[in-house]
Amino acid sequence: MDRIIFMVLRNIYRAPFWFYRVVKMGREDAACTEQERYGYIRRMVEEINRTGRVTIRVQGRENLPEQDGFILFPNHQGLFDALALIEASPHPFGVVIKKEAAGIILVKQVVRALRGIAIDREDMKDSVKMIRQVAEEVKAGRNYVIFAEGTRSRRGNELLPFKGGTFKSAVKARCPIVPVALIDSYRPFDERGIARREVQVHFLPPLYPDQYIDMKTNQIADLVHDQIQEKINQNIP
Length: 237
Hints:
By secondary structure, the chain is of the alpha/beta class. Helices cover 45% and strands 14% of the residues.
């Protein structure tokens, strides 16, 4: 919370203009392209992270598929995850988040500008609709981020089990699955104070349809989970 307040204060004179632009880009009739929307939000996020004294260290960008139409599956450590991923990824993406988080001021506007999806996790029909929508959009060449734990881990760099159902969109779309290891992403907002922090983002080699098509979704979930946890264990003391 200390750092969030610090970020707000350091960018207080920029915030109204950012908010206006993001709201404008989030309209259905906005003239800008997805790359233009994402590029603006990415520059905004880079400035927020810089003024918030958080450095994003990225490894494995070469593992991102050259052609869009893939889904990133990162571990989930907290609210800062999205800021780390946006700065780390040159490819635009939509994000699937829970409706509670989508109601937060600015988060709501950014999700709309990214053409993301907010779902009610307790509503099965909503989940089914999301799976179908993400699959269709990914087939058409969009990218998405889905947090396979379903909720944030409160164990630092230790992952919760991944939910097999979160991989149904990827299987339906037959798209590349890109595991993403976030390390220390909980620290900027969960720890008190505003000391400099470093967050690591590791893009792991993707799983392609021919590698997972004969697997059940819970098997895919376990495989991606273990790859991410192994990468985290390799990069923390």
